[in-house]
Write a structure and sequence with these properties.
With about 300 residues, the protein is an alpha/beta fold. Helix content is about 40%, strand content about 15%. It has one domain: Metal-dependent hydrolases (TIM Barrel). Helix 8 links the parallel strand 7 and strand 8. The longest helix has 17 residues. It starts with a strand and ends with a helix.
């Protein structure tokens, strides 16, 4: 079965350790070899700028990761195809893998719409407004004041609407989330789980999930163990509880997966890397019809591409 994974941090790993190779580096959760082996069809690659990078250097760091995306992932491997539009995704042939560039947090753009426009021109098609803390756009989930979108943040969302890009609410404060629901035309949560099952600030409350569903937004269930369950270890069956809860709220056509592979150090039992999607698929097939499994793994996200 084809897989659409809405979030990983491979670019960050390749940026921080230049000797790593996307092709088959065993230290990576996601590699080209793993994608090919497991029928990965579209992979989202996030630009994530760590907190230790000085603010004045963050846009440059983002550009470095864009260069890695093209030089080490797209250009070096003929079977990897850049996805800029829904048509690009639909044109993918057998044996081809779509690569979709995303931004995790707007720290890199500072207070500049021009920088956002530049990243869009370079291929970014989904924009997460914050990481866990504050920036000029909004507050993240761990920022104590919990502010929503700034006036600049509203301009950012409006610009994303102009280009029909995804506005990603994962990592965003709750107030920011509701501001996005008011202003965004194409909201998603690329890697978030259900707060009612695990009370973690990165997870979505029922009201938030329902608001996303009302706007026909997508939710990518993530494999971060602490977002799935409080007690370790975490198993695949625990992940499926989050899937089932979103389905119970009416989200069967609006839920997929956003692994956060290569952005995590702890992993779920039997879901330690991309090739272990096979184990998740096997478990899904025990509980859902074949067509439902196909939707969760690929079709839901693919059909919701707005750009």
């Amino acid at each position: 079965m084809k897989i659409f994974d809405a979030h990983c941090d491979v670019l960050w790993q390749l940026w921080r350790a230049k000797q790593k190779r996307f092709a088959n580096d065993s230290s990576l959760h996601i590699t080209l070899e793993g994608l090919k082996k497991s029928n990965g069809k579209i992979q989202c690659f996030a630009i994530y700028i760590p907190e230790h990078v000085p603010h004045e250097h963050r846009f440059h760091a983002a550009l470095e990761m864009v260069e890695i995306f093209y030089k080490e992932i797209v250009d070096k491997h003929s079977e990897v195809k850049l996805v800029l539009t829904k048509q690009d995704a639909q044109r993918l042939q057998e044996g081809e893998i779509g690569a979709l560039l995303t931004l995790e947090g707007c720290d890199a753009i500072g207070q500049s719409i021009t920088r956002l426009d530049t990243l869009h021109r370079l291929g970014v098609r989904s924009v997460g407004l914050t990481w866990n803390y504050s920036n000029a756009v909004a507050d993240g989930v761990l920022e104590p004041r919990g502010a929503g979108l700034s006036s600049f943040g509203i301009k950012v969302v409006e610009r994303l609407n102009e280009h029909s890009l995804w506005t990603d609410v994962s990592h965003l404060s709750e107030k920011g989330f509701w501001d996005v629901m008011e202003h965004a035309e194409h909201p998603i949560a690329s890697h978030s789980n259900c707060h009612v099952l695990r009370e973690h600030p990165r997870n979505l409350k029922n009201e938030q999930i329902q608001a996303l569903l009302e706007k026909d937004g997508m939710i990518g269930i993530t494999f971060v163990p602490s977002f799935v369950k409080e007690q370790m270890p975490v198993h695949i069956k625990d992940v499926l509880l989050h899937l089932e809860h979103i389905c119970a709220l009416g989200g069967e056509n609006n839920v997929g997966f956003g692994s956060d592979f290569d952005g995590i150090t702890e992993t779920i039992v039997n879901l330690e890397c991309y090739t272990h999607y096979e184990n998740l698929i096997n478990e899904l097939q025990k509980h859902y019809k074949e067509e439902q499994v196909r939707k969760f793994l690929y079709s839901n996200f693919a059909e919701h591409i707005s750009f």
